[in-house]
Design goal:
TIM Barrel, 12 helices, 11 strands
């Protein structure tokens, strides 16, 4: 049987509206995840649109409290808003402090046409949303160059500079950068619906790995094959190209209560009614309910899950998942 790895998505936004102690639901949760043998912990990112604890600061704290866990973002939605030289400096520092355990997963974030809170974030930073894609592509190129070279010059559509040296360099010679993308979402790109193939191509060209969410097992299987095709197109080893599924879980013997709490959590998180996507996006109920859903994704090719507990008691959820579900996959 293929080894299936699991990571835990830290509730860095949830703690803001749950009233939980961040030390408990972030630091203690991370320590427990390491004790249970999880592969890593992941922190979401958004500055103004969906406020939360800053992901870089959070992962720095977790780096000091753990020894083995990979430290990643899921995903870094503010990447187009941050200057890549400053971010390269900050992320290299995190990689140094964690002894090379980082994975930077970038994304475009929610389209600004989705609502004023998303547009206001870009207006506040004085950045046109139409520049998102270029900022991601150029930002990835720049970070990789300044992490490996000194006296770097760059002439792009957005960023232009000469003779820049960033210190420190990451511990990892090839510090991984993934792209989180759901190419099936027609609203993923700013402006008119984006070209789906262009999204897959971008992941294959610029990323070391891919994270996706809100897909059926059948959709994941199809999308994974496309991502791997484009990775191969750009000369990457398909067998080493990483792919991960971000998925939600709520464990409760009472399936109705699990469903209700999941909906409550997601509605507060996204400020939208999640009822239309709940069954697609959440494994809720008892042990067998959760295992059945996760197994359907394993059959579709998922080898790495990033699990977010859409529940108010994060510690109890982690314990239940770790003792009742995790052993079935390892």
């Amino acid at each position: 049987m293929r080894k299936i790895t699991f990571g835990i998505v830290l509730p860095t936004r949830g703690v803001l509206f749950s009233g939980a102690d961040p030390r408990k639901d972030v630091i203690a949760l991370s320590k427990m995840a390491e004790e249970y043998g999880y592969d890593g912990v992941w922190a979401g990112d958004s500055i103004l649109a969906k406020p939360r604890l800053d992901s870089i600061v959070v992962l720095s704290a977790v780096a000091g409290a753990t020894e083995k866990l990979k430290l990643g973002t899921s995903c870094f939605a503010s990447f187009p808003l941050r200057h890549p030289i400053l971010l390269a400096y900050q992320w290299a520092t995190l990689d140094q402090l964690s002894s090379g355990r980082t994975i930077l997963v970038v994304c475009q974030g929610t389209p600004t046409q989705h609502g004023p809170i998303y547009r206001n974030e870009y207006d506040a930073f004085g950045i046109p949303p139409k520049e998102k894609v270029a900022r991601i592509e150029e930002g990835i190129e720049i970070m990789r160059k300044v992490w490996k070279e000194d006296n770097v010059s760059y002439e792009g559509k957005i960023f232009k500079f000469k003779n820049v040296t960033v210190q420190p360099k990451p511990v990892q010679r090839d510090c991984p950068i993934w792209i989180a993308s759901n190419p099936r979402s027609t609203g993923e790109l700013e402006g008119p619906p984006g070209n789906i193939e262009a999204n897959f191509d971008r992941v294959g060209k610029y990323a070391d790995g891919w994270m996706t969410t809100m897909v059926t097992p059948e959709e994941y299987k199809e999308d994974l094959q496309k991502v791997l095709f484009y990775a191969g197109k750009y000369g990457k080893d398909r067998s080493k190209f990483k792919a991960s599924l971000y998925y939600n879980v709520n464990m409760n013997e009472d399936k109705g209560k699990a469903s209700s709490e999941s909906a409550d959590f997601l509605e507060k998180y996204y400020r939208e009614d999640p009822s239309g996507i709940l069954d697609k996006w959440v494994a809720f109920g008892n042990r067998n309910d959760v295992i059945k859903k996760l197994e359907s994704f394993v059959e579709a090719g998922v080898q790495d899950f990033n699990i977010r507990f859409v529940a108010w008691d994060q510690i109890t959820q982690l314990k239940k998942f770790s003792t009742e579900v995790l052993p079935s996959f390892n």
